[in-house]
Design a protein that fits this description.
The structure is a homodimer.
Chain A lengths: L2 H14 L12 H8 L3 H13 L3 E4 L3 E4 L24 H9 L7 E2 L13 H13 L1 H5 L8 H12 L11 E3 L1 H13 L5 E6 L3 H9 L3 E8 L3 E2 L1 H10 L2 E6 L13 H13 L3 E5 L24 E6 L11 E4 L4 H11 L5 H12 L2 H27 L5 E2 L7 E5 L6 H10 L2 E2 L1 E2 L12 E5 L6 H23 L1
Parallel strand pairs in A: 3-14, 5-6, 5-8, 8-9, 9-10
Antiparallel strand pairs in A: 1-2, 4-11, 6-7, 10-11, 12-13, 13-16, 15-16
The structure holds pyridoxal-5'-phosphate (2 copies).
The site of one pyridoxal-5'-phosphate (PLP) has 15 residues of chain B, from helix 8 and helix 9.
Protein name (chains A, B): DNA-binding transcriptional MocR family regulator
GO molecular function (chains A, B): DNA binding
Family (chains A, B): In the C-terminal section; belongs to the class-I pyridoxal-phosphate-dependent aminotransferase family.
């Protein structure tokens, strides 16, 4: 973080905490410069940043004042999906979104990519280059089926932070979390089976179910505490459900962290009904709280939690390095790994193992957590500013996604089509539902840096939404 | 190839062609040295090589003589598997073999790895390192779902050599051929379906079927001309078969190339019975004949051939870069790619695309074809020498695998266990059958260089086989 960003954050916090009140005059540029031992221009840049965020307003010839704040938008209510098993639809929409990656000029507001431009990633690609130079034969050969031991050892170490005590032998490396989930599902389910999911759920996971002919039953989910255990229990009593897929830490798209008591409760429920929990911890390391939240896996005593994760969100998607902790399904998981993909490339595994072992990973993740948190604040400000009032916005406890609920009349699928022409790609909420619900919702990827370019996109987005509302009023 | 190897090959060919006859005296070292303009020691090395191969014998003080040759061992007869759909077994044995990769001291005679130690691969890892340095952001990001266009363009170019005219848009990059086959099967079949296979068939493909709950029906296959079209037709009349998996070019494990007429015939049969052909062309580029043999895909007119291949055998397994040409199943294949693995890592794709584009690939493959051909000749000599007479050995037209049929009494599964203690891993024939047939057979990976170490292994292997026969005679 640069000096001015640091200072801007500090001031934003003071405003947030009420140390400077709405309408109050802020210290002069000169005073702040002396107080913090930074240059005049640094203070000016900090003030400009806060101005962009509309936290402060300049008054000609008298300085900066704390802006009179609009209230924080409320958090969306508990979701209310159809409560019966359905076939997942929406593939055409997902494919369209994936294909947008082809066009280098499109701004991918809808995707799930992290920010891979930070200098703290440099040691990673230096290491990749080193691995290639020093171990050419190894990286060109078939790997062990379970994946490189060096890497599995590092993953086991990382998992301690989430409360799980596992060894390298308990871990199977996969080609990303997606492939991990796919192997886990293939290991446990067959076509026609029913699996419960949070609602909304990441569209990739939904399409996995569709691919394997598994039916989804969407369970009401609270944007602040996660899946409704009561609703899940009801569903378990009514349907022959094989398992439940959960993203309990820094949920995508809702951003919640399930409180520990609820993690234990859902596990107890799974035990009572003898179902499997597919736990997706891909964003778990990006929690704002320290130490990071525990996984459901860490409470598991009988190997019924299959935990999947990857370095996609914490490091980089292009690595395609993830893992499964398969619990009691190890044999089936090994077989399904062999059947569905064979071995994993050694080069990226070796590079990321070193990246973790030498401490670069922790430095990088610490940095990214801060960046994403501050980005999400900025994006929330922009939402407040450019979007109609009456919207609901999540308050994520980690990760980098915001979920926005717009007035019922807004059809984000239509809005997305219009934005497409402006080379802006967004993710309408319907992608996150098996049956295409949540058309008035929108997920925003706040890993995109808070540059002027992206502020403009948010402004355009807001205008498009306003237009949709006006059109409805005139119709 | 070094000078002495070149010379040794030349002399071996002359002996093979009968220019030097059995018992005849060979030119003196000095004569050859003058004739070929090489040093005395080069000729001596060449003669020593031929001596190791037992093609020539030294006679003290009078020079080298052409050895009286044992006859070439005969080729195995058409296979005769059980002709009904069965569930694939043998997973435990396959897993054991895969796990052997863990132990760096084990000699992997049973695996399918190519030789990745040749200097003609250097441009590849130089390119990998360059890609990392010059495109860090790109290689860290999610790729297009179909894979990098640069690479798909190169693959389309390569496919012209096999007679297929396709564009980059007709190709979907996969993480190796295995993942390609798995996506293709998932796109077409569901659990309980029946798929026909050549017999013997590569164990990886078998285990894929097992993984997805697909039944295999093994079709009699001739080691010189491929699957019996008559037997396949009979099976199609009797069972509701969804498709057939074929490795028509440089078959693994049998080494045949299906004659063009038979390729057309099997395609016509598939059309008549409206089934799918899963064509695995992974060894196709390693055919000895020039130009390389055509694919069945190249004759396809209605998109029923799903062709899978990869750079695993021609370049390196560790790349995990393969592709599917999905024909009329493109939509399903894209969905199953997304469901089963998501996108493919960009780094290896970019590196191999450049490797092909700049001509390194063709140079490398040309070289490897010669090396493998010469290796297979040497291994066949060793088989003749160290194994009991009465064995049958294939005469591959490409690739680098030999299939050996031993006397019925030999149980290679037992022999393999004994060899395991000597840190030698071999592939018993039973891995190549759904029901564990071919226990008296053995596949040998001739990509392993013909060094003294490997000659010794072959000697030990031969001894173990001899012992098995003796034990049976004494029992
Ligand atoms: C919740 C969740 N699970 C899985 C994935 C897929 O991860 P990977 O790219 O590691 O396959 C994503 C990526 O967007 C995700 O958000
Ligand atoms: C016939 C055949 N198909 C597929 C494969 C798997 O190839 P890949 O390593 O590219 O997944 C092999 C490897 O041994 C093979 O021999």
């Amino acid at each position: 973080m640069t000096r001015y960003q640091h200072l801007a954050n500090l001031l934003a916090e003071r405003i947030e905490q009420g140390l400077y009140r709405a309408g109050e005059k802020l210290p002069s540029v000169r005073t702040l410069s002396q107080e913090h031992g930074v240059s005049i221009s640094t203070v000016q840049q900090a003030y400009q940043t806060l101005e962009t965020l509309r936290l402060i307003t300049p008054q000609p010839r008298s300085g900066y004042f704390v802006a009179t704040r609009k209230a924080q938008p409320p958090v969306p209510a508990m979701s209310r999906p159809v409560q019966r098993p359905v076939e997942v639809t929406q593939w055409d929409q997902v494919l369209e979104m994936l294909e947008a990656r082809r066009d280098k000029d499109i701004i991918l507001f809808g995707g799930g990519s992290p920010d891979v431009t930070q200098p703290s990633l440099k040691p990673l690609w230096r290491e990749m280059s080193r691995v290639v130079q020093h171990h050419p034969t190894e990286i060109l050969s078939y790997d062990e089926l379970a994946g490189r031991r060096e890497l599995r050892e590092q993953v086991a170490r990382l998992m301690l932070d989430g409360g799980s005590t596992v060894t390298a032998d308990d871990i199977v490396i996969t080609s990303g979390c997606h492939s991990g989930l796919s192997i886990a599902l293939l290991a446990v389910c067959k076509p026609g089976d029913i699996v419960a999911v949070e609602s909304p759920t990441f569209y990739g996971t939904m399409q996995l179910l569709r691919g394997f002919g598994i039916k989804a039953i969407e369970i009401p989910t609270d944007p602040e505490s996660g899946i409704s255990i009561e609703a899940l229990e009801l569903a378990l009593e009514q349907w022959p459900i094989k398992g439940v897929i959960l993203v309990p830490n820094c949920n995508n798209p809702l951003g919640f962290i399930m409180p520990e008591a609820r993690k234990r409760a859902v596990l107890a429920l799974a035990q009572r009904h003898d179902i499997v929990i597919f736990e997706d911890d891909i964003y778990g390391e990006l929690a704002m709280e320290y130490p990071r939240p525990r996984t459901i896996h860490s409470f598991d005593i009988d190997g019924r939690v299959l935990m999947c994760s990857s370095f996609t969100k914490t490091v980089a998607p292009g690595l395609r390095v993830g893992w499964i902790v398969p619990g009691r399904y190890r044999d089936r998981v090994m077989h399904m790994k062999y059947a569905s993909s064979g071995t994993t490339p050694p080069a990226t595994q070796l590079a990321v193992a070193t990246f973790v072992r030498e401490g670069h990973y922790h430095r990088h993740v610490r940095r990214m957590r801060q960046i994403y948190q501050s980005n999400m604040e900025t994006y929330t400000c922009w939402l407040r500013q450019y979007f109609p009032c009456g919207i609901c916005v999540t308050r994520p406890l980690g990760g980098y996604m915001l979920w926005v609920e717009l007035p019922e009349v807004v059809d984000m699928v239509c809005v997305a089509k219009q934005l497409c022409r402006l080379k802006i790609q967004v993710a309408p909420g319907s992608l996150f539902s098996a049956s295409g619900k949540y058309r008035n919702c929108l997920r925003i990827n706040c890993a995109l840096p808070t540059t002027e370019k992206h502020r403009l996109v948010m402004e355009q987005l807001g205008e498009a939404v306003h237009r949709a509302i006006d059109q409805d009023a005139n119709a």
